[in-house]
Amino acid sequence: MDERQPFDLESHVRRSTHGPCFICEMLRGNPEYIHHVVAEDADHVAFLSKYPTLRGYCLVAPKRHIEDLAEDLSPMAYLELQALVHRLSRALKRVFEAERIYVLSLGSRQANSHIHFHVAPLPAGIPLAKQQYHALMAEEGILRLDATEMEQMAQTIRTALAAQP
């Protein structure tokens, strides 16, 4: 498993609860909220997590600021969003030779309210005790990846997505 560095969870929670929507700010081009985009269409965006615990850890969101999946998305809009989650999952499985793809929807109206899905490839060979939530928890540290590595990873994922039928 890759080397991890400590993560300042307290600062992250403060930004998430008192700062602007990180997805909307990224889409506006705010340089403080830059992420490495791996897929984008008129309605959705997928991008690498800024605080990855696994290589290839991505987030997928609608571009429109939506806070309630059950009430604010039509069934068709939900299926279109999930189609991107599925395509990304297939690409991540191939690129990272993942044993499993984790997909979660996190956040709340109190923090990170813009709905988004976490899509993370679990590499083969990770012991069970370090899988599932343990593999995803930033409290356990985040990967030490520089901007060049992140951009190379994003490009590899973009290429894998483009190669899908």
Explain what this protein looks like in three dimensions.
With 165 residues, the chain is of the alpha+beta class. The protein is built from six helices and seven strands. It has helices at residues 9-18, 22-28, 69-72, 75-96, 133-136, 147-162; strands at residues 4-5, 37-40, 44-48, 58-62, 98-105, 117-123, 142-143. The mean pLDDT is 94.
Concise description?
This protein has 165 residues and is an alpha+beta fold.
Please describe the topology of this protein:
Elements: E1 4-5, H1 9-18, H2 22-28, E2 37-40, E3 44-48, E4 58-62, H3 69-72, H4 75-96, E5 98-105, E6 117-123, H5 133-136, E7 142-143, H6 147-162
Helix pairs in contact: 4-6
Q: Extract low-pLDDT stretches.
A: none
- Based on CA atoms alone, the radius of gyration comes out at 15 Å
Number of helices: 6
Largest sheet: 5 strands, antiparallel
Mean pLDDT: 94
Number of strands: 7
Instruction: Decide which structural class fits the backbone.
Output: alpha+beta
Cα(first) to Cα(last) distance is 31 Å
The helical percent reads 25-40%
What overall geometry do the principal axes of the alpha carbons give?
globular
Read across the widest sheet, the strand sequence of neighbours is 2-3-4-6-5
Q: Could you give the order of the helices and strands? A: EHHEEEHHEEHEH
- Beta strand %: 15-25%
